[in-house]
Amino acid sequence: MNLPSIRSVFHPTDFSLGDETALIHALRIAVAARSSLELMHVGAEGEEVHWSDFPSIRSHLAQWGLVPQEASAADVIEAGVRPIKIRRHGTDPAEEIAAHVDRVKPDLVVLSTHQRHGLQRTLHPSHAERVARASRSQTLFVPRGFPGFVDSDTGQAHLLQVLIPLDHRPFAQIAINAAASLATQLDCKGVHWVGLHIGSSPRFPKVTLPSGPGWSSEFKLWDGPVVERILETASAIDASLIVMPTAGHHGFLDAIRGSTTERVLQACRCPLLAVNMAAENHGSESVE
Hints:
By secondary structure, the chain is of the alpha/beta class. Helix content is 31%, strand content 24%.
């Protein structure tokens, strides 16, 4: 199985407590992958933004026992992460961040999401979703108000149940491989992978679920409304992560606006990994 590597992680931060969970996920993944970690803040015109305003990477690493309490910059790099702090100013933070993502093309974007609905969603569109349009690779959405799969106190990752909705288009194997790579780099043991196909036909897409130390897997077949079945299954198995492929060249929402992945994102209670794939580069096969 060809597992993609993560060499760069990008996380935009608004310096709020609500952003903390997404930051912790970005940092833990960057440490595991021994990659760079770009933290970007976009302030209003005239706003004073100091380097000390950025979240403290060293304090988290010290709490996790990866660096001494009085760690130096060299200690942080030795721990496996290369932090980069970026300051920008602008009237539209999402536009500034999306432009940076489109230019730099990080391997993984980690976004904190507000799950808005109805009129509130229309008046205040999610910055996270707009930024994700620029991502050409993987985007990890971490919903605010839920703990996610990284323990903030210890830095340990707990991917126990991973749900992967399967369809014939877009073909999910690349997304499965990306999730397997993430679990491997995070040294997650005992992961249970659930491949979920929703439809009246028993013909599953031909994919291979991951195998690893203590890992297990199963396929489930349900009929009924797709989004509701994904969310019901995620709740029933207490999913640690939902993994979904997205189709197209122009980013997350440009490819699937208003369809399954976006609607699942609006209501899921665990992180969601969206893996962008060009449809013509991936075939689709079925098994009985």
